[in-house]
Write a structure and sequence with these properties.
The chain is α/β, with parallel strands linked by helices. The protein has a single domain, classed as Rossmann fold (3-Layer(aba) Sandwich). The protein contains 10 helices and 8 strands. A 6-stranded parallel sheet has the order 2-1-3-4-8-7. β1, α2 and β2 form a beta-alpha-beta unit. The radius of gyration is 15 Å and the shape is globular.
Length: 191
């Protein structure tokens, strides 16, 4: 099994102009590893990171969008796989960190911790899908994650992370959204 933080650290070293959409436990790790304006944190929306990522991929076809999701989160919105497949954005990568639990909500087990998300994504119509269970395999997939035509789906089997407190208020503060809008050249939001 992979330590999610170690995998994300490898990814963070290769990220440049990509938009990264992260939710819950992945977001907690990502914010510490890669603080940058092009991070979008899926605020209080378990299951919607991939939907938010799809919207960003459609709106910004010139940029790769990488979604950092969890298996518990994806289970809340499996229908998003079919939507992504139908739209088929070439700039979309969806990484699901599978630890068999709703980690951010106390570590309770998901209904089937052995679910085969790669097969589910392929069945939904993703252009490419893979599963990795060790760090070397994850590192070998980085070129695909960052550059292959999408939509790409990657299931990364990880150990459960810490269940400690997270600062969602800090993660979802408005200044983060404003910084992203500025980086993308969008007009400022007005109250």
């Amino acid at each position: 099994m992979i330590n999610r933080r170690e995998a994300l650290s490898l990814l963070a070293r290769r990220i440049d102009q990509e938009i990264v959409v992260a939710t819950y436990s992945s977001a907690s790790d990502w914010i510490e590893l890669s603080e940058r304006p092009l991070n979008y944190y899926s605020s209080g929306a378990m299951g919607l990171a991939s939907s938010h990522g799809l919207g960003l991929a459609i709106a910004r076809p010139e940029r790769r969008v990488i979604v950092l999701d969890g298996d518990g989160s994806l289970l809340m919105n499996l229908g998003t796989l079919v939507s992504v497949s139908r739209v088929a954005p070439a700039n979309f990568t969806h990484l699901v960190f599978q630890n068999g639990s709703y980690e951010a909500n106390g570590g309770h087990p998901v209904p089937n911790p052995e679910a085969d998300f790669e097969t589910i994504a392929r069945g939904a119509g993703y252009a490419d899908a893979f599963t990795v269970r060790d760090l070397a395999s994850f590192e070998a997939q980085l070129e695909t994650i960052l550059h292959a035509p999408g939509p790409i789906f990657g299931c990364v089997v990880v150990e459960q992370g810490p269940l400690g407190p997270r600062s969602y208020k800090e993660m979802y503060k408005a200044e983060r959204r404003h910084a992203m809008r500025r980086e993308l050249g969008c007009s400022p939001l007005t109250p």
